[in-house]
Design brief:
Number of helices: 4
Low-confidence stretches: none
Shape: globular
Strand order of the largest sheet: 8-6-5-9-10
Distance between the termini: 30 Å
Structural class: mainly beta
Mean pLDDT: 95
């Protein structure tokens, strides 16, 4: 399995990061998800799941920052279009990102249950996008947590692919 994301001069384009124009943001947070191309997804896959994490956030906030978690995307996808996280043009189950929970008092699910664009505060960060091909639709509902995704993926991953996405400070 292979995944691709368009880069600009080796970086995730500004439209999907803290450098996005106001029409790509909500409450000063970038919320327009980037497109993803999928190749060689196993024919027996029923769904896809994706996770976008920032391990470079550990020295800044003390934990890996979760930017996007989604499950139950159709395995027949060849491309997830721009803004799929907010537009619902593609059916998916939305997981919580790091704005959910008790650390931040965010009440808008468009921010804490969808794509939350990278906003590296200190230097260039390397974000990791991982996509899983799954042999079933996962028993998750909107607002699931990353650990729940990992628990339900156990024994059901047919293939996976990861790429690093550099983002400018």
């Amino acid at each position: 399995m292979k995944i691709q994301v368009p880069l600009s001069n080796g970086y995730l384009p500004d439209a999907y990061t803290k450098h996005a124009s106001a029409n790509y943001q909500l409450h000063h947070h970038p919320i327009t998800s980037f497109p993803i191309t999928f190749e060689d997804v196993p024919k027996t896959a029923v769904s896809l799941a994706l996770v976008l994490l920032d391990d470079d956030a550990i020295p800044v906030c003390g934990f890996t920052y979760i930017h996007w978690v989604a499950a139950n995307l159709p395995a027949t996808l060849t491309e997830l279009p721009e803004n799929a996280s907010q537009s619902d043009k593609v059916a998916m189950t939305h997981g919580n990102n790091s704005l959910a929970g008790n650390l931040v008092q965010e009440t808008d699910p468009r921010l804490f249950q969808h794509y939350l664009g990278p906003m590296p505060p200190d230097k260039e960060h390397q974000y990791q996008l991982t996509v899983y091909a799954v042999d079933q639709k996962l028993p998750l509902t909107d607002g699931f947590w990353l650990n729940q995704l990992y628990q339900h993926l156990e024994g059901h991953v047919l293939a996976s692919a990861s790429i690093k996405l550099p983002v400018k400070n």
